[in-house]
Known about the structure:
Elements: H1 13-21, H2 23-31, H3 40-55, H4 65-70, H5 72-79, H6 82-88, H7 92-112, E1 120-131, E2 134-145, E3 151-157, H8 164-168, H9 172-185, E4 191-196, E5 201-206, H10 209-232, H11 249-254
Parallel strand pairs: 3-4
Antiparallel strand pairs: 1-2, 2-3, 4-5
Helix pairs in contact: 1-2, 1-10, 3-5, 9-10
Bound molecules: iron/sulfur cluster.
Amino acid sequence: MPFDKPLPAYLSPSKLNDFSACYRKYQYGAIDRIPSKSAYPLVKGRIVHAILEKLFGLVGAERTMEAAQSFIDEAKASELTPDAMSDIGYDKALESVLNKEIRSSLDGYFRLEAPAEVNVKQVEFQMKATIAETPLFGILDRLDEEEDGSLTIVDYKTGKLPRGQYYDKRFDNMEIYAALFKETHQVRPVNIRLIYVEAGHSDMVLVEGKRVDQQIGRAAAAWRLINRFYEEGDFAANPSSACRWCPYTSQCIESGVAVKL
Length: 261
Ligand code: SF4
């Protein structure tokens, strides 16, 4: 089956995850560009990210809880579009849940750190570079400078703490971001930090060259396969328990794939 749309110019870590989970999921999202419905956790995550981005747009002393709370309405207004509200079934009950969870996320975040004391260098910035013949793209949540001058790349997580196989893979995407940062800024970040906002928990590791190389190797292998499947016109479906959270189940069912729901 030839594709009438071009291959995306870049591979992002999230699309790499889609490809690793199911080749067909990558095809539907990245090549066919089938719009996917918003899901509640995604919308909530965007709102919390937007609040924290605004908070770090202020000078240190102004980064208070009151300031963070003052950004809630604006962040909700920009993320709760009519389509998003329809997708997630936004009603009074869900509004109450969302408000509670946003407040709980801000409580968790302020329990974890005092944003006034964080030496932030940049927030929400795009990075694009070709590494190992693989065009990579990503948006980094935050870049901090530690007291000793070392740089830390930071990712906010707005879901639950990872468990099982997800725990072991939790730094995989950020190791690609570390390579992207080094390539685009000519400086190697020293640390990777994940902030689990609602849990008020963070995980920090040193950037290890070997692990970064492994993740770049994974991305490069995927990009070679993506190009091959695109030429061949076939991205095979790989039904698994992940079908339950996939936005393309109806397309798969229509094309005869035995999805696992
Ligand atoms: S529904 Fe399942 S098989 Fe179909 S694209 Fe999604 S993950 Fe793949």
